[in-house]
Design brief:
Elements (H helix, E strand, L loop, with lengths): L15 E2 L2 E2 L7 E5 L4 E5 L1 H39 L7 H24 L13 E6 L17 E4 H8 L12 E4 L13 E3 L5 E3 L1 H20 L10 H15 L14 H9 L2 H4 L8 E4 L3 E6 L4 E8 L5 E5 L13 E15 H9 L2 E7 L3 E7 L17 E2 L10 E3 L13 E10 L15 E10 L14 E6 L2 E7 H5 L6 E5 L5 H14 L10 H16 L5 H8 L3 H16 L7 H15 L9 H11 L4 H5 L13 H12 L4 H9 L14 H16 L7 H20 L19 H5 L25
Parallel strand pairs: 13-17, 15-18
Antiparallel strand pairs: 1-2, 3-4, 3-5, 4-7, 5-6, 8-9, 10-11, 11-12, 12-14, 13-14, 14-19, 15-16, 19-20, 20-23, 21-22, 22-23
Helix pairs in contact: 1-2, 4-5, 6-8, 11-13, 11-15, 13-14, 14-17, 15-17, 15-18, 18-19, 19-20
């Protein structure tokens, strides 16, 4: 020791022979930091504590992922058990609750480790990514880091590398940079951009730098700190570099090259790369199983994730028309089981936060893109909360704290965010009967189906339904939705998903809308804007009149508005009912409309009462040119309009309840407008029923007896159909809608006791995925 008590040699006493003390220098651990291209020497005095810290970081994120997988497995087990009729699900439900609690605890433990500091406004601390340059597993015994990625919290790493720690001052960690500006190569970094614009590691440059200056320099600088005979830097670093370069080969959709930024490091850490992948060639991707499944390209730090929110089971959503908290639940609308399906790119801190947080929030970038990120302090509705009660109850108005926030481009600096979000709002659609004569409940009574899709681009749509929690309108040729994140993600979720009905999902949107009207017994559905409701009605009528064209897709392409659809519809109606021209085209149009209805009766089940009223109006128009048209004559010349009459009957068969019957009759006009005057609905219905009877007896007029008999048959037909319709007390919620002349309709007059227990919700991921 010198006068200042500094040791002449830093090591422990090895042995003593003949009064001669042998000492050696301390042997530290070497790590490579890809972000800064530095070799970090962790002194022996700090090595044990540092390794413990890194293992704790790895352990917490791995525990979280294991708990996530366990919760997913418990959900799947519960879902399979509840599909069995008459079998108790209590043991499986208890497993789900226990797995849910464990997942929350493991998430809290991980968040506690990351709570210091702020990272890109996501509320998480940065991490430092390191590569051990010695496979410590060779030493045998104990839990070692091995040849894997390791992570330290930024705060911990900064304090230790600066020579500060909670246990007192320690020696500053030594670093050696691989950036070699002073050598003959003149290259400053091992990273370069290839011909495809992707960032790669230039292994040739790395080899030149090692051979011409870096490796000798390292040996000189580190000779007093570490025994380099234990390390093969060429093999270790080249193996890592080659593995990252090799991971870029092939078709990786979201692979934009090697990324070593802090955001990419955090993405790899949260994706459990440290526990999931050694840096070996050919292992460039990591797959994770859970309710939020993800696949990550390790080198680029970009991946794809699939989320079911709140999970694959979904939860009951009930809309309350009033704002009073004590509004009885029974007066609200049971919208059935709803869930959110999200598929998005995992990029940087935003993607990592979405994978880590229990709850998502929707953020809008530049009024053009919506991005999903994690909400650190949020939580999903508990499993028990989603099994019934008032947990899914909501009112029309969105609260101020739910509005969410806009984000600036700085949040996504260096990361691609374009087209990073896809998904859908799904409803548990009751399974249709296996046949028209079915009399038993199918094994499966429901399956989740998209009725509105979510996309990243929301240019021109961000303002729809301002202040509303759930709102549907028609913009630029599409039905567009605003769905508050809190409806799917639980109380406290921020922002709203902007969705649209794509061409392929129009039929499902119609099925969803028709079922909501049925659940309301055809009362006013205020969550859909009235102009949008009228537009959907008109599109339904025009589509069944010309099944050879995709009417809705045509409107999508030209981005028509509500007024344009109204004008197009008015022109369509004139073509169908116009009798002023000296031709029979209008008659042929009505005949074709009848043929299409007879050929596609099930399509009527997705129509509004107003659409059915319009169809009845159009089918019953007739004049002198209809008598000239021989196509209107059947095999019995006494009859006329047989196909049109059959089409009218099919429309009546599609009516579900007596209230809907009255609504259809009251909207039997050319545009679906209401005929009720002075509130006298009964009078309007009576007039329309009489006119339908008169049309159905057309042709039977050779003598008074036949005319009277035809009138009696027509009236009896209408009465028979009306009498078998369900009343408001017989709404068979949970059963698929069916034509009212089928056994399925007649048998199912009460809510389905098996819905939604025996429903398909699917496994979260196909077998064979790597579980980490």
């Amino acid at each position: 020791m010198d006068a200042q008590n500094n040791a002449d040699a830093e090591c422990q006493l090895n042995k003593s022979e003949n009064n001669i003390v042998q000492v050696c220098h301390e042997s530290g651990m070497l790590y490579f930091r890809p972000e800064t291209e530095e070799i970090i020497v962790v002194p022996a005095l700090d090595a044990g504590e540092f390794e413990t810290h890194c293992l704790d970081m790895l352990g917490r994120v791995d525990d979280y992922h294991q708990a996530s997988h366990a919760y997913s497995a418990a959900i799947e087990k519960y879902g399979q058990q509840r599909q069995l009729p008459g079998v108790s699900t209590e043991p499986q439900a208890a497993e789900v609750i226990a797995a849910e609690l464990l997942l929350e605890n493991k998430r809290a433990a991980l968040l506690d480790k990351l709570k210091d500091g702020e990272t890109s406004n996501m509320g998480y601390q940065d991490v430092v990514e390191l590569l051990p340059l010695l496979d410590t597993r060779k030493r045998g015994g104990g839990k070692q880091l091995g040849k894997r990625y390791v992570y330290a919290s930024q705060r911990y790493f900064s304090e230790r590398s600066a020579g500060r720690s909670q246990s007192g001052a320690k020696k500053k960690w030594h670093t050696v940079t691989l950036k070699n500006k002073d050598t003959a190569t003149g290259q400053s970094s091992i990273y370069s951009v290839d011909s495809q614009g992707r960032r790669t590691i230039d292994t040739k440059k790395m080899k030149e730098q090692f051979s011409q200056g870096i490796l000798p320099k390292i040996k000189i600088e580190l000779k007093d700190y570490v025994n380099l005979d234990d390390y093969n830097l060429d093999e270790t670093l080249f193996g890592w570099a080659e593995s990252w370069n090799e991971s870029l080969a092939g078709s990786h959709t979201f692979d934009n090259g090697i990324e070593v930024s802090g955001a990419a490091q955090f993405m790899r850490f949260i994706s459990n790369v440290g526990a999931a992948a050694e840096f070996n060639p050919g292992e460039g991707h990591v797959s994770i199983k859970g309710e939020a499944t993800a696949s990550l390209s390790v080198a680029s730090g970009i991946g794809r994730a699939v989320f079911y929110i709140p999970d694959r089971l979904g939860w009951d959503l009930r809309y309350m028309p009033g704002e009073e908290e004590d509004t009885p639940l029974l007066v609200g609308l049971n919208m059935g089981v709803i869930r959110l399906y999200i598929e998005k790119q995992l990029i940087g801190f935003v993607g990592a936060s979405a994978q880590l947080a229990a709850q998502l929030q929707v953020m809008v970038k530049d009024d053009e893109q919506q991005i999903v990120a994690g909400l650190p302090q949020g939580r999903l509705p508990r499993f028990q909360e989603r099994q019934g009660g008032r947990s899914g109850q909501f009112y029309k108005q969105m609260k101020q704290e739910e509005e969410g926030a806009s984000v600036s481009a700085e949040l996504f600096a260096g990361a691609r965010a374009e087209y990073a979000l896809q998904g859908a709002v799904q409803w548990l659609k009751p399974t249709a009967p296996p046949s028209l004569t079915a009399t038993t409940v199918a094994k499966t009574v429901g399956e989740f189906t998209d009725f509105a899709t979510i996309g990243a681009s929301i240019a021109g749509l961000a303002g729809i339904g301002a202040g509303a929690k759930f709102h549907c309108t028609f913009i630029n040729g599409k039905f567009c939705f605003k769905v508050a994140a809190s409806l799917c993600c639980g109380v406290g979720a921020k922002g709203a998903f902007i969705c649209e009905v794509a061409g392929k999902t129009l039929a499902e949107f119609g099925a969803w809308l028709a079922y909501q009207l049925f659940a309301l017994d055809y009362r006013f559905f205020e969550l859909v804007a009235e102009p949008a409701f009228e537009t959907f009605t008109r599109i339904c009528v025009m589509q069944i009149a010309d099944i050879t064209k995709d009417i809705y897709q045509m409107y999508n392409k030209v981005k028509v508005g509500i007024d344009s659809v109204s004008a197009i519809f008015e022109g369509f109606v004139r073509e169908v009912i116009d009798e002023t021209k000296n031709n029979i085209e209008a008659s042929k149009n009505r005949n074709q409309l009848a043929k299409n209805i007879i050929g596609n009766p099930q399509q009527l089940l997705t129509f509004t009462p107003e659409a059915k009223g319009i169809l009845l109006y159009l089918l019953t128009r007739h004049g002198k040119w209809d008598h000239v048209d021989l196509a209107n004559r059947g095999r019995l010349l006494l009859d006329i309009y047989s196909e049109r009459k059959e089409a009218v009957i099919q429309v009546l068969y599609s009516i579900q309840t007596r209230r809907e019957w009255r609504k259809v009759m009251c909207h039997r006009t050319r545009d679906g407008s209401c005929l009720v005057q002075n509130g006298d609905e009964a009078a309007a219905v009576e007039i329309q029923e009489r006119q339908l009877c008169e049309f159905l007896q057309e042709g039977f007029n050779r003598d008074q007896d036949m005319k009277r008999h035809a009138a009696e048959l027509a009236a009896q037909k209408l009465t028979t159909i009306y009498n078998r319709l369900k009343t408001g007390n017989e709404l068979s919620w949970g059963y698929a809608l069916a034509m009212n002349n089928t056994p399925w309709y007649n048998l199912n007059r009460m809510p389905n006791p098996h819905f939604p227990q025996r429903c398909v919700f699917g496994p979260c991921e196909s077998p064979g995925a790597l579980i980490v």
